[in-house]
Amino acid sequence: HQFDLEIYLKHREISAIREEIGKAEDLLSDIRLAVRNDTAAVSAPDTHHNTRRSALQTIVSNMSFPLPSISNSLGQDAIRHARMNSRRSSNGTTKWLYGRRADGVYVSLACPRCHRDDFANQQGFLNHCRLAHGLEFGPYEEMIKQCGTPVDESEVPLDHPIRLRAITKPLSKPNPNQY
């Protein structure tokens, strides 16, 4: 009887996997449709499958399996070690995401909600803030003000791309009494 029970349980597991694959294929089809015709998806009525963001929310809310959680200290050490290794560049130095304010001050960028700071680029940083926390930032300078922590210029690697960014000072309003 034990053997029959094991076979039955495996069949149920296969059935559940096929159901999840079917859901994922349906959502993938909806996402492809939205990507192909983004303007139609935006102007269509707001149903569960008309926008990419709605599709992502549907995927997350329909997950029938729990996300893994690591609660022991050994697991936390492994996560911390993996994060530090992901920050190492090819020459072995630690890399961070930096920005530069209009006044020329360098800042390190970190998520204002969860304080994550290991992003490969600014787009990844913006995507994380938007998708994970629903945060939207205006122009570049607004993001730098809200999420940047000033750092000494010596902390920014000489080959970091932010050093190539020109300093842009905001235009001052003309003084009407000047003329």
Report on the structure:
The chain is mainly alpha-helical and 179 residues long. The chain has 2 domains: 2-61; 93-164, no CATH class. Helix content is 47%, strand content 6%. It has 6 helices and 3 strands, in the order ααααββααβ. It has helices at 2-36, 38-43, 52-61, 73-86, 122-133, 140-147; strands at residues 98-100, 106-109, 148-150. The protein has a 3-stranded antiparallel β-sheet. A hairpin with a 5-residue loop joins strand 1 (98-100) and strand 2. Helix 1 packs antiparallel against helix 3 (52-61). It starts with a helix and ends in a 29-residue tail after the last strand.
Query: Oligomer, anyone?
Result: single chain
Shape from CA axes?
elongated
What can be said about the biggest beta sheet?
Answer: 3 strands, antiparallel
Radius of gyration: 24 Å
* Overall residue-averaged pLDDT value: 73
Low-confidence stretches: 46-50, 67-94
Terminal CA distance: 98 Å
Helical percentage:
40-55%
Q: How do the strands of the widest beta sheet line up side by side?
A: 1-2-3
Structural class: mainly alpha
User: How many helices?
Assistant: 6
Question: How many domains would you count in the coordinates?
Answer: 2
Using DSSP, what is the number of strands? Answer: 3
Q: What portion of residues belong to β-strands?
A: 5-15%
Question: Could you state the order of secondary-structure elements as H and E?
Answer: HHHHEEHHE
